[in-house]
Every structure is written in C-alpha cells, then in structure tokens.
Amino acid sequence: MAQHRYVLPESAIPTQWYNVMADLPSPPPPPLDPGTGQPVGPDALTPIFPMALIGQEVSGDRWIPVPDPVREVYAMWRPTPLHRALGLERALGTSCRIFYKYEGVSPAGSHKPNTSVPQAYYNREEGVRRLTTETGAGQWGSSLSFACQIFGMECKVYMVRVSYDSKPYRRVMMETWGGTCVASPSTETAAGRAILEANPDSPGSLGIAISEAVEEAASREDTNYSLGSVLNHVLLHQTVVGQEAKQQLEMAGAFPDVVVGCVGGGSNFAGLAFPFLADKAAGRDIRIVAAEPAACPTLTRGHYGYDFGDTAGMTPLLAMHTLGHGFVPPAIHSGGLRYHGMAPLVSHLVHLGLVEPRAYTQTECFREAVRFAGAEGIIPAPEPSHAIRAVVDEVERAKEEGVERTILFNLCGHGHLDLAAYHAYLTGEMTDLELDQSELDRAAAELADLPALA
Ligand SMILES: *Cc1c(COP(=O)(O)O)cnc(C)c1O
Predict the structure, then answer these.
(1) Is the CB–ligand 1 distance for residue 229 below 6 Å?
(2) What is the rounded end-to-end Cα distance, in angstroms, of the chain?
(3) What is the pLDDT of residue 319?
(4) What is the tens place of the pLDDT at every residue in 199-254?
(5) Is the CB of residue 266 below 6 angstroms from any atom belonging to ligand 1?
(6) Rounded distance, CA 279 to CA 99, Å?
C-alpha cells in the first residue's frame, strides 16, 4: 500500500531556526526612519519589541537556537505531518508526485503558533506582562492569545471591525484562551478615535488595527507589540516547517522540483520555502512559487519601494512590494491574504528573481479547495487554496512539457471556521473582484512622497 503520511518523532523538532539572510546573494534594503530617511537603529524598536527579537530581526547568523521551553510547547503539535497527496494526484490524473505539509494540526489550526509561542516567550523573559496585536480574520489574534495563556501573560487584540462583526467564533477562541478582543477602529487609541471621527462607520483594516496596537504598546511600560507576519524574525520562526518537511521527504525518498506557498505577509510561504532556498543557493535546480489573491496582488502588480507597514504611518519604512498603506483591500474571503504590503525578505527574493509570484481569483481557488477536500479529506483554509491552485497549474505545466515533477506545498491551515466562505462558493454567491488600475495609480502617488529605493 502506498504511504499517505510521513510522521516524525518529537526528537525531530528542529533545535535551530534557519536564517535565510546568511545565504542571500545581496542583503535586502534596511528599514528606514521616516523622519530622517536613515536606517533605523535597534533603539527605535525597544519601546515595542524585546531585545532578543530585535537581535533576530537584524541577525546574519545562519542558525539561531530554539529555546528549550519553546521546543517543549512546539511538542504539543509538532512535528506536523507531511502528506503524500495520493488522492489529489489520482483526481488530477497526474504522474507528478505531490506532497503537502499540514500545519492545521496546531491548537489554533494554522502555522501561526510557530511564531506566537517564541514571541510570547522572549517578551516574558524580558519582563513584559502584556502584548498587543492586530488581527484580520482572527487567526493571528487567536494564536497569540493561546501563546500568552501558556506563558501567563495578558493579550489585547485589535480586530478589524468587519471581521469582528461577521466572524464571532475566532473572537470566542481568543476569549477562551484568556485574550481580550476589541473592534478596530476603537475609542481606546488616538489613531482609532481619529478614524472614527472622520468615519463613524469605518469597517476598519489591518493597517488601522496595527496603528492602534502599536500606539498602545508604545505608550505603556508593561506592554509590547507583536506582529504575526512580514518581519524577519517572524519568517525565521516559521522555518521549523521547511526543516521538518526536508526530513520527511527524505523518508519518502523524494526532493521537490517545485515548492509552493500562499502569501499574505509571507510567513507560511517563507517557513516552508526558505530552508529549500539554501539548496537553491547551493546550486540545486528548484523553483519556488508564491501564490497571492488577484484582488490583493501585492507581488504581481504592486510597486517595489519604501512604504509604511500601517495606515497611520507609525512604523518604520519597509522596502517591500506594496499597494500603498492607504489601500483598503476588497472583502475577499481569504482574510489572511488582505495586507497592502509583503515581507521585505520575500519582496527582495522576488526582485532578485529567486521566487516566482502568481495571482489567482478566489473562485478558481475555491474550486480547487473543494476538489482537494473531496480527494484528501481535509477542508483547507481559504488562504492555502491559492497554493493548491498554483499546484494544479504546475501539474498542467509538467504535462505540457511531458515531465514528471515532485511538488511540495504548505497546507498552512484548516477551514473549519471559514465555512461561510465555502457556503458562498457552493451556492454560487461568490464573485471575483478585479483590482482597478486607478487603485494602483493611487498607490504610486502615495509612495512618491516617500524615500525611493537606492
Ligand atoms: C495569516 C494566515 C495567512 C497569511 O499570512 P502569511 O504570513 O502570508 O502566512 C495564510 N494562511 C493562514 C491559514 C493564515 O492564518
């Protein structure tokens, strides 16, 4: 009988995170202080981040040790299984081999606890008792609430207003794990009050919620801020995914020709792909594909330049592909992929031509998610359905070229709390939104006032 799942013992949980910075042909452009236009020093970040994470953010070391207490918490669900997608291969009638790493087995149901746990840990080690953060659909807010609960800390989550109203169950998860969740924009911060004054019915956005969470962390001595994607240290923590996948592929006697992930801020993609970029840097022939929504096409249609990470312009300027910090993404069902920017590391790799970006509409992604659920049993979160869509593209491409390939992708979460989106798809109510060129022109105008990339 062919093997469906490759499972590792607890002892195989990685003891180090892999830092891709050590293997890049050139370093990414540094974050800038918006006031001076000069690179930000660590001092600028100490009001909201612990030193350990600031150190990881700028580190050039190839390997960074995973603290034992973090590894112990990881062992609650890690190592996660690697599946051979035998059912999907059959459904597609392909002789390509398809593997997926399944991160939906974590307590929160996605890859996000891989970073929320070390972030809570390092903050507590440095005496911080409270963390603030933002959340879109609620995946990150629930993951950080879980991690704070484990380490005996308070967690305050600013949740984008539309999701707060339409997706109550993630909020209940946060509260079950002891977190506090408020709708953003809120009256609790100056940033939130300013937005509400201008527009009392504001639906909120990830950018606005980040402004609120950062403001609260910067103004309270006992409180730090925590981000669930985009930054170097977040991508670093996710590399346990790719390192485990490598060991599991070895058990299967396989190595990927193509590695695929979906991208919102870039962290689950990086977690799977970066450990394989080390092989690519060493000369191995391997393609790396990043799949994003056509309605929020940061990598495929955005500008590569300096932009703020939030709406109010409180963060340092990051060199990234961006749709402009004023961009309010259309209400697509992949909440986790609705961010105006992209991880600077992922943007840099796309700029260097080492990562290929692709964009897909939500209905074509849900079509593949439903086929996948039928073939593999697991109901994917809407976000990784973009990765599945890209895998099907790769299978078709291999067929045209008359070759058999080994394809690996990250199934970064399950869709049990996204069934309303499946309902919309199954009843034919889901529509596709093309992003208007005028939106992209507006973004370009917004960036014209900010420093340009050298
Ligand atoms: C948050 C989230 C994403 C998007 O974030 P990345 O940093 O791009 O990984 C994708 N999938 C799921 C399931 C998420 O929860």
Answers:
(1) yes
(2) 56
(3) 97
(4) 999 989 888 999 999 999 999 999 999 999 999 999 999 999 999 999 999 999 99
(5) yes
(6) 18
- The closest residue, in CA terms, to atom 7 on ligand 1 is 267
**How many Å lie between the centroid of ligand 1 and the Cα of residue 60?**
25
**Nearest atom (ligand 1) to Cα of 234:** 7
Atom of ligand 1 minimally distant from the CA of 381: 13
Structural Rg of the chain based on CA atoms = 20
Nearest atom of ligand 1 to the alpha carbon of 270: 9
Q: Which CATH architecture has domain 5-12+67-109+233-447?
A: 3-Layer(aba) Sandwich (3.40)
Is the minimum distance from the CB of 388 to ligand 1 under 6 angstroms?
A: no
pLDDT in tens, 372-425: 999 999 999 999 999 999 999 999 999 999 999 999 999 999 999 999 999 999
Q: What are the domain boundaries of the chain?
A: 5-12+67-109+233-447
CA dihedral 86, 421, 269, 266 (to 10 degrees): 170
Best residue among 101, 105, 111 to mutate for probing ligand 1, ranked by most atoms within 8 Å of CB: 111
Q: Please, are residues 102 and 272 in contact by the beta-carbon 8 Å criterion?
A: no
**What's the pTM value of the predicted model, to 2 decimals?**
0.97
Taking alpha carbons only, the member of 379, 56, 37 closest to residue 45 is: 56
- Annotate 4-16 with DSSP letters as a single string: -EE---GGGS-SE
